[in-house]
């Protein structure tokens, strides 16, 4: 990671590996694995705090699913529009989705039920990763509609000369 020197009011600003901004962890390498792990831990904490409500068999399953989406998924998916998800992150997100549904139904790992059976029992499909993709697409579209500079970059409409080996000037 290159060293960047930034000065403010004649004081050198310290370069750090990661920092929190608006509740999200920003890393110097631009990867999101740390943020995703932290969000998963926060979602588990949120579920645990509301466990008595979410696992109460006296409440309708649809009501409990709505509570999960309200209390737990909102914590998990905060800032997901900007995530870049690699293979490991994808597996962790799929695992937390199933963890939530299993806890909702009070299914122990010793029962050895398949994920398909759990999803059938709860009446859901795997939608967490699709939700993240959908939100990312909406944010991308919002950027393109409302920011002319970003639109020009994405559509390669920047005037100037390309580097060595190029086909010429862009217009």
Automatic annotation (TrEMBL):
Protein name, per record: Uncharacterized protein
Species of origin: Sipha flava (yellow sugarcane aphid)
């Amino acid at each position: 990671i290159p060293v960047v020197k930034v000065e403010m009011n004649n004081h050198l600003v310290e370069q750090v590996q990661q920092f929190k901004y608006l509740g999200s962890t920003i890393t110097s390498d631009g990867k999101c694995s740390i943020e995703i792990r932290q969000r998963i831990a926060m979602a588990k904490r949120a579920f645990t705090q509301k466990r008595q409500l979410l696992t109460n068999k006296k409440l309708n399953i649809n009501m409990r699913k709505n509570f999960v989406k309200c209390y737990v998924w909102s914590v998990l998916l905060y800032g997901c529009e900007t995530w870049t998800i690699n293979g490991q992150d994808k597996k962790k997100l799929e695992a937390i989705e199933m963890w939530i549904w299993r806890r909702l139904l009070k299914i122990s790992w010793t029962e050895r039920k398949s994920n398909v059976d759990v999803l059938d029992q709860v009446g859901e499909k795997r939608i967490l990763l699709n939700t993240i993709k959908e939100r990312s697409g909406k944010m991308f579209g919002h950027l393109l509609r409302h920011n002319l500079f970003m639109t020009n970059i994405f559509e390669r409409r920047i005037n100037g000369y390309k580097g060595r080996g190029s086909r010429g000037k862009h217009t």
